[in-house]
């Protein structure tokens, strides 16, 4: 996810150059722009699919600890292979923003349309109609369902043999922080991606009933919605910094804000936090009875 977020952040300014009117009008200029657009779409898919993989990993750690082995390397490979497929399908017949044309600062056009060996218009039609399902609806549904079960299990169950009041308070604080982090992740995902997909759905409905091509959005409202969606790659580090002490200490160490602390000691100092997480993960390992609703 970190690599995909970094690529997403770098590809935006690259489009200002490679998708400019000057570059698109030059010989072979459409190909770098198409690659940038395809890479951008692939990074968004990688972020959402990685979010689903993380949710599945946490679900298995809580409900089936040790019973089911989650192959992290395999999940990363599958995610990047699917991202490559998304990039390839977006290379053909990509609708891109054209920057700094003689008449407008921002306009749009479709580049790299093919009729052989495949019809790129048909591919684009299906891709546009199904992108919001594969990139937004399915990941949101799966992640929400898994996180809801995790939050319910962590919040309602208690650890068998809990005797220490101090330990109970520490565990309660850790539970609240974990649940809050899961809620924040979902809310940020919805706020970033829901507006742009609603706009695409409205365009599809208008195009379906009016039998017209969708307009090129160059107004301020769409620019803000588009910015909101592409800014999603910036929020994950902020969320981790707020809720994860280990990530926060490591970030401060890299910025040399705590030069007296060694990087190895950061992990030793966060052992108590890891202990709390392990305690929470043991909730599902004991047959504790859920309280009556």
From TrEMBL:
Keyword flag Transmembrane: yes
Single GO MF annotation: G protein-coupled receptor activity
InterPro entries: GPCR_Rhodpsn, GPCR_Rhodpsn_7TM
Pfam hit, one: 7tm_1
Cellular location(s): Membrane
Record field: transmembrane: 42-60, 72-92, 132-155, 176-196, 224-243
An annotated GO cellular component: plasma membrane
Keyword entries, A-Z: G-protein coupled receptor, Membrane, Receptor, Transducer, Transmembrane, Transmembrane helix
Family: Belongs to the G-protein coupled receptor 1 family.
Name of the protein described by the UniProt record: Putative G-protein coupled receptor 83-like protein
